[in-house]
Amino acid sequence: MLSLLASSPVTAQQADAVQLYSQDDLLDLIKTNSHLRQVRADDCQLVQDIEARADIMQLPAYQFLYGDMLAYAVCVPRNVERGWDLMLQSAAQGLPEALEQVGRYYHIGRFVQVDIDKALVYLHEAAAMGNLNAKLRYAQLLVDGYGSPVDYEQSYRWLHHAISADANTHARITKLLQQLAKKMPERVVTNAKRPVK
Fold first, then answer.
1. Within a 13 Å sphere around the CA of 79, how many CA atoms are in the beta-carbon half?
2. Cα 42 vs. chain centroid, distance in angstroms?
């Protein structure tokens, strides 16, 4: 037995096996939109594990990841329809990042036809769950005249209480708050600034 081990030295590449992402690690990758880049950096070693967690275990973060991989042909052959289905499944399970991406895709018409009504629904849900990108896009749609004036106050509240260390994001929030404030009576703006309970 020892002679077998001695005759088959482990190469450096074999020793660098990639560990499957923890749920928290994967969510962090998704939040920073670096999940596809990481799969590529890992030399596509985890494709079968990712697929199993998406299809068999139906874990929303893995459904999102595998759906994106299929849509953009990252380590797998392109299959936009299957990828879109997985993204929708992930969103249906309430993953904020999936809700935001589906809403964004309906807004810009990526993989699907532009559908602002659907975009508003998905973005509203993601924003309500705290996704900052969804809050920003949702507010922009309201400022652009889509949606309902009934939603102005809530959107203003989300942005007013949003936290971001990024100067560009902060400036964008400030601009959207100013634009939303012009659409509402001052008392509604004052109410929206109250601390969230």
1. 11
2. 21
Q: What are phi and psi of 20, to 5 degrees?
A: -65, 145
Whether 183 contacts 149, CB under 8 Å: yes
What lies within 8 Å, CB to CB, of 155 at 6+ separation is 127, 135, 138, 139, 142, 180
Buried residues in 125-140 as b, exposed as e (16+ CB within 10 A): bbbeeebbbbbbbbbb
Distance CA 134, CA 96 (A): 9
CA 169 to chain centre: 17
Q: Which conformational region is residue 40 in: left (phi greater than 0), alpha (psi within -120 to 50 degrees), or beta?
A: alpha
Query: What pLDDT, on the 0 to 100 scale, is given for residue 19?
Result: 84
Residues 6+ apart with CB under 8 A from 116: 106, 107, 141, 146
Instruction: Write the pLDDT tens digit of every residue in 53-97.
Output: 999 999 999 999 999 999 999 999 999 999 999 999 999 999 999
Question: What does the pLDDT average to over 146-171?
Answer: 95
Distance set, CA 195 to CA 7, 130, 160, 169, 191 (Å): 68, 15, 10, 21, 9
